């Protein structure tokens, strides 16, 4: 894979992208996200949380995917998608999410949704669909 080095306005080069990383523009990811060679996504937060300026998003697996699909509301599914991709659960995950800026929530949701072919799942899961009358 060819490395893409972006020359910034001040003449410096963008060293955040390695030869194995892929530009967010090429992958329809938010500008703050970079696809890494291991398949994870490095997402830079616009508004750091407790001094943390970036997070790594990974593919949802097993219980995290089921948890996301079983959420009753779109906002809850988005939260479960983000926290599942970051790998945060329970009170630590809730505390982190509550401190996220709205823009970062939208960007992280889009970044984590990249792993799902058609974006984040919405609507009812099969366990929530009522039988036809």
Structure characterization notes:
- This protein has 133 residues and is α+β, with helices and mostly antiparallel strands.
- The protein has a domain at 41-113.
- The protein is 32% helix and 14% strand.
- The protein has helices at 62-69, 74-86, 90-99, 102-113, and strands spanning 33-35, 41-49, 52-57.
- The protein has a 3-stranded antiparallel β-sheet with strand order 1-2-3, covered by helices on one side.
- A hairpin with a 5-residue loop joins β1 (33-35) and β2.
- α1 (62-69) packs antiparallel against α2 and α2 (74-86) crosses α4.
- It starts with 32 loop residues before the first strand and ends in a 20-residue tail after the last helix.
- The model is unreliable at 1-26 (pLDDT under 50).
Provide the fold topology.
Elements (H helix, E strand, L loop, with lengths): L32 E3 L5 E9 L2 E6 L4 H8 L4 H13 L3 H10 L2 H12 L20
Antiparallel strand pairs: 1-2, 2-3
